[in-house]
Specification:
By secondary structure, the chain is α+β, with helices and mostly antiparallel strands. It has a domain of 113 residues: Enolase-like, domain 1, CATH 3.30.390.50. It contains eleven helices and 14 strands. The protein has a five-stranded antiparallel β-sheet with strand order 4-5-10-6-7. It has a four-stranded antiparallel β-sheet with strand order 11-12-13-14. It has a three-stranded parallel β-sheet with strand order 1-3-2, covered by helices on one side. Helix 10 packs antiparallel against helix 11. It is globular. The chain starts with a strand and ends with a helix. The relative contact order is 0.13.
């Protein structure tokens, strides 16, 4: 017989995870659609009683997003301009109803190559907080998602927070998504770009692409090419010349590999232009 538990405290949840093979449940927006008409056959650990895993806070060194924080909460929270891409991605996740239920940790643990939140977090050098009974570790997001539906989560562990280091919150960021329609669609490709500008020159940048490889990835080569460039139309010229060697898109029902590679270059250009515009507006204010 399947078991169901709804702990009221994190320590209780971790104790249950230590003694059995429970499946954590928060928003349920990935779990229930995947079931279709099949009944649940796993022991479910309902996390919706854990208020301590919800909300956005700040420490001396990090902005911390609780694992149960929904996309609606992220979109509506007052956040630095560097998190503009994350808030834009939050408004692109499914429908309004999905955004009200789906959690940021669920998006990461589901580990879809087309997860909208991942590129926006990668450009912020995000790390995940993983807890188990009596222990906690922090792991860069780039090392947490290992492949399609695969993560570095170990038995007995629970993703409890996403941590954004403050040194990576310089400048402004933007998000661009390409799908077959405007809303309620799985991404063909998506891009997040963060730019810091001083005296009209790019001093720091981070760019990530999703749905164009098994795992969303940073474009380190392009980032290096952009440093020292004027934050204007010259950015598009740099993108046009960049090899984008980090990408390894596939052919599927949503688009060919060739189309994805061309689309990636275009949406990166748009994201950079939007980030540069937001940065320049702040400098002029």
């Amino acid at each position: 017989m399947n078991r169901y538990a709804k702990p009221a405290a994190l320590d209780e949840a971790l104790a249950l995870l230590a003694e059995g093979n429970w499946r954590p449940l928060a928003g349920g927006t990935d779990i229930y659609p995947a079931l279709g008409n099949r009944p649940l056959r796993e022991d479910m650990l309902d996390l919706n009683g854990l208020a301590e895993l919800e909300g956005i806070s700040e420490t001396a060194t990090h902005v911390v997003i609780g694992a149960r924080t929904t996309w609606t909460q992220i979109a509506r929270h007052e956040l630095p301009p560097a998190l503009g891409a994350l808030q834009a991605a939050a408004r692109e996740v499914g429908s309004i109803q999905i955004q009200n239920r789906a959690t940021i940790a669920g998006n990461l643990c589901n580990a879809s190559p087309a997860a909208d939140g991942v590129p926006a977090l990668l450009v912020l050098d995000a790390e995940v907080e993983l807890r188990r009974q009596g222990a906690v570790r922090h792991l860069p997001l780039r090392d947490f998602i290992l492949g399609n539906r695969r993560t570095a989560l170990q038995p007995g562990e629970l993703l409890t927070a996403i941590r954004l280091p403050k040194p990576s919150l310089a400048g402004a960021s933007a998000f661009e998504k390409l799908g077959a329609r405007r809303y309620l669609v799985i991404s063909i490709a998506m891009a997040a770009a963060r730019l810091a500008v001083r005296d009209g020159i790019v001093t720091d940048t981070a760019i990530a692409i999703g749905a164009c490889s098994a795992v969303a990835t940073r474009l380190g080569g392009l980032e290096a090419m952009l440093i020292g460039q004027p934050a204007n139309g010259a950015l598009a010229e740099v993108v046009a010349q960049a090899p984008l060697a980090e990408l390894s898109p596939i052919d599927d029902v949503r688009g060919s590999a060739q189309y994805r590679r061309a689309a990636a270059r275009e949406i990166v250009t748009r994201a950079l232009a939007a980030a540069a515009g937001a940065t320049n507006e702040r400098a002029a204010a």
